[in-house]
């Protein structure tokens, strides 16, 4: 599977890219599944994220921010440690102080995450498999 990358400029140009281990690290830190990172709801006719916080953005930037090495391979731009988390927060703060907006960074992360989930078309309700009554009956097992 080819994982997409999305260019983003913070203090310099990087690429956002989420490999399987990055997705799991984000889920562990956020204590929720990745499908909740990019949920939206309609508010006064505008689609807005249901979760948008410094903690979410810092987690996504920390694990998704990449550079390319001399061979063209992706490497982490930040150490995958508590120090790297702090550095991610500092980059976001600098980005915002320079006039950047949380929603713009969130949208870049959403684009980079695109291959991890199917995006339903606007107005489409995600399908759920029907459950048989036997599975829901008391004592069924």
Mean pLDDT: 85
Outline type: globular
The percentage helix is 25-40%
What number of structural domains do the residues give? 1
Number of helices: 5
Helix and strand succession? Answer: EEHEEHEEHHH
Alpha-beta classification: alpha+beta
Biggest β-sheet: strands ordered side by side in the sheet: 1-2-5-6
Q: Could you describe the 3D structure shown?
A:
The chain is an alpha+beta fold and 141 residues long. The chain has one domain. The protein is 38% helix and 16% strand. The protein has helices spanning 20-30, 54-64, 82-97, 102-112, 133-136, and strands at 6-9, 13-16, 40-43, 46-49, 65-68, 74-76. The strands form 2 sheets. It has a 4-stranded antiparallel β-sheet. A two-stranded antiparallel sheet has the order 3-4. The longest helix is centred in the middle third of the chain and has 16 residues, at 82-97. The termini are far apart. 21% of the residues are buried. Residues 128-141 have low confidence and may be disordered.
